[in-house]
Amino acid sequence: MTENMTSTSSPCAACKLLRRRCAKGCVFAPYFPADQPLKFASVHKVFGASNVNKLLQELPEHQRGDAVSSMVYEANARVRDPVYGCVGAISSLQQKVAELQAQLAIAQAEIVCLRMYQGSDLITFNTKMTSFSPPVAPSSPSR
Ligand SMILES: [Zn+2]
């Protein structure tokens, strides 16, 4: 009985891209399945396969999944924005937070003003505008 290497023994996305045999204990295989080739491609492009391999082997197994999703996120951000990477996304979100905090402060100040206005009967808007116009001295033309 001969088993073809068509469907059952297909290499993981990493080994496929690196054109190597996917060994049984392949460190990439649990995180880079064959049906998601782009996931490894961007990580490999940004970090390099050997660095990813080294990093994964230094980590305990229960942290590897988080490390991979972090690297995939960072790599995709770096591909989209080669200069700032995910720092660009972080700083634009921080800017948005600052804008929303400013809007919130304004809204809270408006609420305080409205409560003060409703609460006090003393405030009356006497707008007695006495029109004051300075006397205009008729200029006597000298002749
Ligand atoms: Zn593999």
Automatic annotation (TrEMBL):
Signal peptide: none annotated. It comes from the Eukaryota. Residues 10-111 form the LOB domain. Belongs to the LOB domain-containing protein family. This is LOB domain-containing protein.
